Amino acid sequence: AQSVTQLGSHVSVSEGALVLLRCNYSSSVPPYLFWYVQYPNQGLQLLLKYTSAATLVKGINGFEAEFKKSETSFHLTKPSAHMSDAAEYFCAVSDHAGNMLTFGGGTRLMVKP
Amino acid sequence: DTGVSQDPRHKITKRGQNVTFRCDPISEHNRLYWYRQTLGQGPEFLTYFQNEAQLEKSRLLSDRFSAERPKGSFSTLEIQRTEQGDSAMYLCASSHGQDNTGELFFGEGSRLTVL
Questions:
Q1: Which residues of chain A neighbour B100 with C-beta distances below 8 Å?
Q2: Could you tell me if A94 lies within 8 Å of chain B, comparing CB atoms?
Q3: Residue B77: what pLDDT?
Q4: Beta-ladder partners of A111
Q5: Rounded to an integer, what distance in angstroms lies between the CA atom of residue A86 and that of residue A106?
Q6: Of A39, A67, B6, B96, which one's alpha carbon is 20 to 30 angstroms from that of B75?
Q7: What's the pLDDT band for A52 if we cut at 50, 70, 90?
Q8: pLDDT tens across B79-93, in order?
């Protein structure tokens, strides 16, 4: 069985500040890991994914995430927050067969001017 | 637009009524998934199809729920005798069977409100 824990259901940062959204996973097999973003009234959009290649993954809109097997983590970062980054972010894990994604509870990112 | 489309986007119904949602996946994708998302939670897996075959169903999918994908293209999710607890956003996603990483492409969802 797989699971994902996102620490902090709400994160607030100032515009221009570092964004750090935390994700820890549990998986009995080497995982594939994803970050999705959901803007209001829109569908989930893939930010980035880790599929056992480079452990530091770069995504869209300046986001990146680092896979750390020893810590079972896949935290999402962005050096400088923009107002347009305000959204809900979901971390997810899939098994090697890619049959389905298991999502975390989500983190709502708020960006203050 | 060649993304995943869902219809209707919003549905308000009275308890006990039946509702049906439709999903049209990206045309070359042979896998189709249904998820449910309640307020403040992440999406929860309901079921998935490879072509027309329903390969996995979650325990969340009670016997009041049925999903079909008759020709391996669009899919429908029917909820019979709706309950207030069924109020949620129902998300459809699709993926290409050759990509087994699990990357999914989501529609905008169908929001169900049961009064």
A1: 96-98
A2: yes
A3: 98
A4: A13
A5: 13
A6: A39
A7: confident
A8: 999 999 999 999 999
Joined tokens for residue B105: 């492409």
pLDDT in tens, B66-80: 999 998 899 999 999
CB B25 within 8 A of CB B74: yes
Contacts of A36 in chain B (CB under 8 A): 106
Task: Report the amino acid identity of residue A59.
Answer: G
Q: What's the gap in Å between the CA of B18 and the closest CA on chain A?
A: 25
Q: Which residues contact B110 (CB under 8 A, 6 or more apart)?
A: B6, B7, B8, B9, B10, B11, B21, B89, B90, B92
Residues 6+ apart with CB under 8 A from A54: none
Could you tell me which residues come within 8 angstroms of residue A73 by beta carbon, excluding any fewer than 6 positions away?
Answer: A22, A23, A24, A25, A66, A67
